[in-house]
Amino acid sequence: MAHPGTLHLYTKKLTAFEHTPSNASSQPQNTLIWIGGLGDGPLGVKYPSAISKALPKNWSLAEVLLSSAYDGWGTGSLARDAEEVGKCVAYFKSLRPKGKVVLMGHSTGCQDAMEYLVGAGNSERESIEGAILQAAVSDREGYGAIVADDPSLEESLKETIDLATKWVEAGDGDAILPKKGNKVLEMFESPCTAYRAHSLLAKGGDDDYFSTDLEDVTLKGTFGKIPSRTRMMFLWGSKDPYIPKAVDQEGTLKRWARIVKEGGGSVDEVNGGVIQDATHNLNDDSEDVVQDLVGRVIRYVEGL
């Protein structure tokens, strides 16, 4: 399927695909930059196209290609992602100097958005007006749920975390972990470094922003540090299989919002929340569910 748009080279070898706005004669001033999750790349998730068609005429949506896209995630890091997202933000800021920029993360794209806002070097990055976290889930909890009913998989997950930790502590974090005989690593489509496996699977790893067992004091060092100028919105799907069934979804999102606000930040709780019947990326969801997501995003950007 062809998708009309403009391919921007925002830095050497990396591009952003900007969907042609529904009002093709308009010159959008504001940019919604969409960041995919593990294994994703531009146009791999369907709903950004639906958002693009519904955006106000002064907004457009661009899907950013990162080095970690598709099979590149296993040898990447949030720090590298944030650096590349920063270059994309700077590009669109220079292209539209009077415009607003909002990041919208999907799945691990949400970790990227958080790393951009509160990770190392954040003070040197361009300011953004907003960040939407859609399907901000914990890889650590997700894989824990996957292996929970299979003792051999549970043991494999433990062995993976132990091995990754050992290699990282020995200074070999960039080395690729051996897949053969490891049931968890065999699930990964990408070769995976010890660092990235530890980051994704170990408690306190660099990717561990959204685990529901993290204490408030930990969250205050992340959610509580989000700049006041950046309005947040959190979106989860009621049928997201990567959210543990025992988790109070509404309660968790309210907890995150509380900590953001206690730190002086701002959250759109009117349009944010749990989307009924939505799955992780909504690719196979009904049109009503997709339009629920779209409507929330449109109202959010209109309120900025």
UniProtKB/TrEMBL annotation:
This is DUF1749-domain-containing protein. PANTHER family: DUF1749-DOMAIN-CONTAINING PROTEIN, UPF0613 PROTEIN PB24D3.06C. SUPFAM superfamilies: alpha/beta-Hydrolases. The lineage of its organism: Eukaryota, Fungi, Dikarya, Ascomycota, Pezizomycotina. InterPro entries: AB_hydrolase_fold, SidJ.
